[in-house]
Write a structure and sequence with these properties.
mainly alpha
């Protein structure tokens, strides 16, 4: 007998007991929705929640694999053991040594994210007596991609528990939450453990550990610097990376957010499969470009000088804001969350535009952490229902006016 048959027998054996939801949850999670219609009037569709989640995961896999290679590449590059890669297909990037280092660091993040998150999901399934919800399948993959490579696993576990419970389960579970769970987890990490989510050490594997060894008295080691582009610009320092390095992703940063090329490929895949909203993605980018243009205009008008602490980020060419930091990743994989985003077409344009606009504003004016996309998305998650409400009310008022004209 196979696993599927054994689970089915356990479901029948414990039917009506306290543990029944646990077996139902495991069966549903591994195989298929618990109940499907076979007769009567219903809509036939090839996709369900699990297939939708799997499609998003497929779009994320290239970013995950690239992030593993990049973790090893940035580590060895900082140590001076390899030369900088000459482009996306450079010989010093796609090496087994880089992959092994990245795998040993990133895979535990994935395991902890899924292990802890699904444990909480199964616990709530048993407590509430309902089926397990597949919504965490995507969240579990997103979380390792939006954190530094060396973040302690216990911190990640605590954040995952907080994000799943406070960000989703207290609202009723998948489909009921008003905040993106993955971003709730990242926000918790940022505010609870800020030294592990910002600075110039956390983005390169081994940099924090080496600093600790130097502080302990090891005088035969040199410190490793892994400052991000945004961190350098926030200090009005020059950036040593080329535009192509930023585009391909050969830069320090969160595990899966550096390669804009692969993020664009994922965006096209999600749009093609009609899972990601092109309206939200496009409007987010338009909002970011608009804010970038405004800041460029402020610099061109000489309203601020080079002595201003905001000059470095304000002076960035407006289009380069899309290839530095996390805004492209956020626009494609976070802002498009169908549960927490606006639902109306006009609302999606407003929602996305404000995310991009606010993201660049926070990026420039936030002195502690020069990245604002996750805060902007969480803020607009809260306002998404309000946006949809006024869009719908506007449509109702226009139709009422038309009705009055026709009946007059």
């Amino acid at each position: 007998m196979g696993l599927k048959s054994n689970l089915h027998n356990l479901k029948e054996k414990y039917k009506g007991t306290k543990m029944a939801p646990a077996f139902n949850a495991l069966h549903t999670f591994l195989y298929l929705p618990n109940e499907t219609t076979h007769n009567g009037t219903h809509i036939k569709a090839a996709d369900d929640l699990k297939r939708t989640m799997n499609t998003v995961i497929m779009a994320l896999i290239p970013c995950l694999i690239f992030g593993m290679f990049n973790a090893g590449y940035q580590h060895y590059l900082a140590l001076g053991e390899i030369e900088a890669s000459n482009g996306f297909l450079g010989a010093t990037f796609w090496t087994m040594d880089n992959f092994i280092v990245g795998l040993t660091q990133v895979l535990p993040l994935v395991v902890v994210s899924y292990g802890v998150g699904l444990a909480v999901e199964f616990l709530f399934a048993v407590i509430k007596g309902h089926e397990v919800e597949e919504g965490y399948l995507v969240t579990g993959m997103l979380v390792p991609l939006i954190v530094p490579v060396d973040i302690p696993l216990w911190m990640l576990a605590v954040a995952v528990v907080f994000g799943v419970v406070i960000g989703k389960e207290v609202f009723g579970g998948t489909g009921m939450n008003i905040l993106n769970p993955a971003l709730t987890i990242r926000a918790f990490l940022f505010f609870a453990y800020p030294t592990w989510m910002s600075g110039d050490k956390v983005w390169v594997h081994g940099a924090v550990e080496r600093d600790q060894m130097i502080a302990a008295g090891a005088d035969n080691l040199d410190a490793i610097s892994g400052e991000t582009i945004l961190g350098s610009l926030a200090q009005n320092n020059a950036v040593d990376y080329s535009v192509w390095d930023m585009f391909w992703g050969l830069i320090p940063g969160s595990v899966g957010e550096t390669s804009k090329f692969l993020i664009i490929i994922g965006a096209l895949f999600l749009i093609f499969t009609k899972i990601g909203s092109w309206r939200i993605i496009l409007s987010t980018l338009i909002g970011a470009l608009t804010m970038g243009l405004i800041f460029n205009g402020v610099v061109s008008a000489e309203w601020i000088g080079e002595s201003s602490k905001f000059y470095g980020l304000m002076n960035v060419p407006f289009w380069q804001h899309l290839i530095i930091g996390s805004i492209l990743f956020g626009a494609v994989y976070m802002a498009t969350d169908p549960v927490t985003a606006s639902q109306t077409n006009k609302g999606k344009w407003i929602y996305g535009f404000l995310i991009g606009f606010i993201s660049i504003m926070i990026r420039v004016f936030n002195p502690a952490y020069p990245e604002g996309v996750f805060l902007a998305i969480l803020l607009m998650n809260v306002f998404a229902p309000t946006i949809d409400h006024y869009v719908v009310q506007g449509n109702v008022k226009r139709r009422m006016k038309r009705l009055k004209v026709k009946t007059a």
